[in-house]
Every structure is written in C-alpha cells, then in structure tokens.
Write a structure and sequence with these properties.
OB fold (Dihydrolipoamide Acetyltransferase, E2P), Rossmann fold, nine-stranded mixed beta sheet, five-stranded mixed barrel, 17% strand
C-alpha cells in the first residue's frame, strides 16, 4: 500500500478514509473526527504525526468503551437526528445500532448500549451515561406517543411530520434503519414513542414504529419481501407521444413499459446523457408514475443542468466520488422506489450513470426493476457503457451518427426489446423485426 501524505488524505471523502483505516486495522476509527482519523492513518503508515497527541488517538475509543462498560444500558432510537434539517444537510447519525429482539422492531442500541451524537463525542462532551442518566430517567421520555406523516430525506432517513405538510419543532426524527426495516414511503402515517433530544440534537427521535397506516408495524415489516413478489414481463408500454426524433425512435423501435430494465448504452460521447434527459422531460409529464432521478459519477456541469430541468435529482454525486459512495447513493433511491412499488405504485428510477459503479452493485440495482404481477411496478432506466445483462430493453446509440448530428442516433442492430409483442402487439413486433433486417442489409 502506498504512503499517502496529509494533503491527499484531507482531500479524500470520509468513506475512503474509513476504508483505508479498516485496511490499516485502526481500532475505533468510525468514532474519530476527520482530523483525528487522518492523524491516526499517518501514524499507522509510519508518517510524521501532526501533533504529540496522535499516539493517544487510537487508544481513546478503547478507554471510552472500558469506561462505559460499567454504565447502565440506555434504550435509544437507531440514530441521532441531524443538527439542522432546514439547512438541507445530510444527518450525521451517532452510529449504527444492532437490532434487538422483543416487541419493538425499531428499538435498537449500539455496541456499547447507548446512543450519542458524533458531534458531542468528538467534542469531548459528557454522554448521557457519563452524566449519570439512568434507565428510569430515559424511560420517562418514552411515555409520549406521537403520530404523523412520513417525509423522507435523500440520505434514507426521514421525519415524522406532526403537522403535515409543514415542518415544525415538534417533528420527530426517523432513522434510516427504521425507514428501511419498516419499508416506509413518503406519506405513510406512523405512530410510536419518542425520545427527547439529547445534547447536540435538535429534534426528538422515534424509538420504534408501532403502527403504519393504522396497521401494526410488525405485520407490515413481516409482509412478503419485494424480491419474493411474483414478477411478469412488462406488458403496459409507456406512451411517450413526443415529436422528438430520438424519443419517437425509442418508443417504436426499442419499446419499454412498466417494470422494464432499460440500459442506454454506447461509448463516450454517444449521447447517452442527452437521450436520458429527453426521456426525463417526456416521462415527467406522465400521470400515475413516481419519478426518481439520481446522478452518480457525472460531470459537475451536468449536475447544474439537471437541476434546472423538469425533474430535480433526488441525489447527485460527481465523478470525483468513489464507486462505493456512488453505489450507496443510487441504492438509497432504488430502495425508496422498491417500497413504492411494493405498495402498488408505479415508480420509475432514472440513473446517470451506472458506469462508475462496481459491476456487481450495478447489476443488483438494475435487477430491482420488475413488473409485479397484480400489483405495482419499478422501472429502471440507466446509462452505461455497455449492457450489463438481464435488461428487457437495450437502447444502443451510434457515436458516429451522434457526432455528425444525424438523429435519431440509434444503433438498431445492437438495440432490442425482449418480448416486444407484449408491449406493441404482434404487428408492432413484426414491424420492429423488418426494420432490424433492413438495418442489417445496408
């Protein structure tokens, strides 16, 4: 492993620093502030530490664990709420908790039996256990049952809006783990006990989810898993009805419908992003579909252009982000769409691009698309350099046609749809076959 200097480490995202710290076997690295984590990495690599206190950095979490081992356990929500949701910043959870058995599915604790915010711990503030807070005192905050409507954030966590749709100081934070475990979607009405905010926490936290839309949370969480729902080939075509030549060619020569797995493929500068942008503009006008746009690994200038378009990205990362960070961003968006589809809605996730993701992650995300027999659907439309395998529709673009401005720039021979007769009928499927034969004979 090459030795990294401080400037390179400072410029690296926190996720990359965590990965490096794990390879270097640095204990307790997830609890360190970024500056302390960099110092620990430099020290472990044999570099010059930034200060005399670096030798103590790795030992600090161990001492903290020993000190807390004698403290009483405190029940808490899965994660601490963000400091200021109004600023639009992603929350910084205290730490992930392990699941607990028993009645409360949403009730969990961390590995040391308590929940504190990273900010308070990093600043050296007293934790509730260190301040002498007992189990009885903590349970005294659990008596109040709150009910409200779920609003999700781009990072996967959310808020229980007590007075929807407007936010208020009475809103309660819902952790990402609870959202995923209970398969919550925007607009769900949930109830459960709250915990009062602790130090460095602005909002109260939901301890567990008791009911979802009037039903016990256990029943909803124990329902059939999305991956086990019966899938059928797409049979309801998206009627795009656009005069754009590229969109018209896609609609009639490479049709796709609700539940399709669609890849827009081609080499660099073949016009993949432009084709996706035109599709977004068309799909945004369709009713009865929930549109989710996510950008991963794109140019910074493209993020600005997308934000000025008809559909605002749910999340956006430039190509400077690591492949793992890009995969996590896309996975959060797809998870939300899966929950929507499982509830009977028709969701469409558009991704630009899968090209920078690890191949196994990209295939997993694309495979999430399906037409649920007798239920909802999840359609995934993504750009990529080449087909990943498993697509029901491949839209291949010709870079020569695109570079010379001849549209539609469709490579009809490399494109195709599985079982097109289900979408356009037998006559439409025969017309597509004739067009492909003509393209081969040229």
């Amino acid at each position: 492993m090459s030795i990294l200097d401080r400037d390179a480490l400072v410029a690296s995202p926190l996720a990359d620093l965590h990965a490096l710290a794990s390879e270097l076997s640095i204990d307790g690295y997830r609890r360190l502030r970024k500056d302390d984590l960099i110092d620990a990495i430099i020290a472990r690599q044999g570099g010059a530490p930034a200060s005399d206190g670096d030798a103590d950095v790795e030992e600090r979490p161990a001492r903290r664990r020993r000190r807390r081992a004698a403290e009483p356990e405190i029940e808490a929500a899965d994660e601490a709420p963000p400091e200021d949701e109004a600023d639009g910043e992603e929350d910084r959870p205290a730490r992930r908790r392990g699941r607990r058995g028993g009645r409360g599915r949403g009730r969990a604790r961390d590995e040391e039996g308590e929940a504190v915010s990273d900010e308070a711990e990093a600043a050296g503030e007293e934790t509730p256990a260190e301040a002498g807070e007992t189990d009885d005192e903590e349970r005294g905050h659990e008596d109040e049952i709150v009910e409200g409507e779920v609003e999700l954030l781009p990072n996967g966590s959310g808020f229980l809006r007590v007075h929807p749709p407007e936010p208020s100081e009475d809103d309660v934070y819902v952790s990402a783990a609870q959202v995923k475990r209970c398969e919550l979607v925007p607009g769900d009405r949930i109830s459960g006990p709250r915990r009062a905010p602790r130090r460095s926490e602005r909002f109260a936290s939901l301890i567990r989810v008791d009911t979802i839309n009037g039903r016990p949370a256990d029943e909803v969480a124990d329902s059939t898993r999305f991956d086990d729902l019966p899938a059928a080939y797409p049979s309801e075509r998206f009627r795009l009805g656009s005069d754009d030549p590229t969109i018209k060619a896609i609609e009639w020569l490479t049709p796709f419908g609700r539940g399709s797995r669609v890849s827009i493929v081609g080499p660099s500068r073949a016009g993949k992003t432009e084709a996706l942008r035109r599709l977004v503009a068309t799909l945004a006008g369709l009713e009865e579909i929930q549109l989710v746009l996510v950008l991963a690994g794109v140019r910074p200038e493209e993020i600005t252009e997308w934000e000025q378009g008809p559909a605002t990205p749910a999340a956006a990362l430039s190509f400077a982000a690591s492949g793992d960070a890009q995969a996590q961003t896309v996975e959060r968006a797809v998870d939300q769409a899966r929950r929507l589809a499982a509830r009977g809605s028709h969701a469409v996730v558009l991704i630009d691009t899968l090209g920078g993701l690890p191949q196994h992650a990209a295939r997993k995300l694309l495979a999430s698309a399906r037409n649920i027999a007798g239920g909802g659907s999840l359609t995934v439309i993504a750009t990529a350099t080449e087909p990943l395998g498993g697509e029901t529709t491949v839209i291949a673009l010709d870079p020569v046609l695109a570079s010379t401005g001849r549209f539609p720039a469709l490579d009809l021979i490399a494109s195709g749809t599985i079982r097109p007769e289900l979408l356009v009928g037998e006559a439409g499927a025969e017309a597509i076959a004739r067009a492909r034969m003509e393209a081969v004979d040229r």
